[in-house]
Amino acid sequence: MAEYHIRLNCLVLDKRKIVQDKAEGIVVIPDLPAQPWYPLFKKLIHGEAVPLGPHPNLVSSPFRKEHPPSERPYPGCREIIGKAFLRKGILNSALETTLSSISEATSKQYNTTYKLWWNYCGENNVSLFDGTPSQVMCFLQDLFSNHGYRYGTLNSHRSALSLILPEGLGSDPALKRFMRGVSRLKPAKPRYNSTWDPKPVLNYLEGLSTSNNLKLLSQKLVTLLALITEGRLQTISLIRISNMSIDDEKIQIFISDPIKTPSSLGGQPCLHMLLSVKPHGTASKQTISRWVKETLKASGIDTEKFLPHSTRHASSSAAQRLGVSLEVICRTAGWSQQTQTFAKFYSRPLSKDTELAEAVLGLASK
Q: Which InterPro entries match (predicted)?
């Protein structure tokens, strides 16, 4: 009897030999439908595949060492979501298109959740795809108690699990009450309690000589765009010159690429920046973030305290102080007035770290 070593990642090559030799046998493989070799393997099966339950000695490594399910390597976010979709009735032929609904940013975010959930299920004998709301609560409680996660992080984990677990997880009364308890014990907190005044930055940019210096001109432009549009730096990195409309009164810039908040696609100003040094490729979000940081630092803003993203806080808070309506502020930034995102996280008073010290020192002059 011939012996075959099937390499799942090389199944296209191995399949030819198996078919040519008309080989038959019983093979145990991991149930990973989203893997590229999975459809090929299904074509080799005669009859129906038999699903096997967990067993500590079911899967072995190439060296015949025990490989319990709890110690199996994490398959990846895409594999987990793909299998969950198939279990929910999505046909294999439509799987790739359905998986395309998950953005790269969401996939990276959910990947953290699924790694934690994978390990938790292996250690506590919980079904990866059939976990109950009570088991999810225990999982979240573990993260809450042992890792100090706050409401926002736990709510993100809950949303990720809702995608792969049975329907109704998000509406479960007990889980909703649990999350309400988390929000009281460790509520989501804004990053900043105060913000900086855009005036010194604008004064610096006004007096900045940018002639014959493409980098300074680029830094000036992206900082001004960040301030006047209240846009994310990611959005500023996504402009396409072909999507610009210029007339005598204004410039309209439309975003065709997916961004973090789809509802804010309408008329978001942004910029397609080119690097000022060779090879002069498109500037990434990280490059634009660095440009803004360098500009803020040169303007006297404490960049150890305030990150480049704080331009959204500074510009929206300044607009509010100048009497711009809440409707206009939220529409420009892409926020919903109903969610109170601006009031909770972005509307901040000016930073006055030295106010008390200056008042005390001022006594000497009286």
A: DNA_brk_join_enz (IPR011010), Integrase-like_cat_sf (IPR013762), Integrase_recombinase_N (IPR010998)
Check: CB of residue 320 under 8 Å from CB of residue 329: yes
Same domain, 290 and 209: yes
The predicted-structure confidence for 213-230, as pLDDT tens digits, reads as follows 888 888 888 888 888 876
Per DSSP, helices labelled H in the chain are: 11-20, 38-44, 77-87, 95-99, 104-124, 133-147, 151-164, 173-185, 198-206, 214-229, 233-236, 285-298, 311-321, 326-333, 341, 355-361
Q: Which of these, 25, 338, 317, lies nearest to 197 by C-alpha position?
A: 317
For residues 157, 160, 166, 171, the Cα torsion angle rounded to the nearest 10 degrees is 60
Q: What is the pLDDT of residue 65?
A: 43
Do 224 and 205 form a contact (C-beta atoms < 8 A)?
A: yes
CA-based end-to-end distance of the chain? 103
d(CA 307, CA 289): 9
**Residue span of the structural domain in which 251 resides:** 198-346
Assess whether 228 and 338 both reside in one domain.
yes
Taking a C-beta distance cutoff of 8 angstroms, is the pair 345, 335 a contact? Answer: no
- Dihedral sign, CA of 74, 79, 85, 87? negative
Nearest residue to 299 via CA among 192, 205, 223: 205
In a domain, 324, yes or no: yes
Residues in the chain, overall count: 366
Q: Is 35 helix (H, G, I), strand (E, B) or coil?
A: coil
Cα–Cα–Cα angle for 108, 114, 115, rounded to 5 degrees = 95
- Kindly report the number of other CB atoms within 10 A of residue 118's CB atom: 18
Tell me the C-alpha distance between 272 and 242, whole Å.
Answer: 10
Q: What is the CATH number of the domain that holds 96?
A: 1.10.150.130
Closest to 46 (Cα-Cα) out of 63, 65, 66, 25: 25
Which residues, other chains included, contact 190 with Cβ-Cβ below 8 Å and sequence gap of 6+?
A: 344, 345, 346, 348
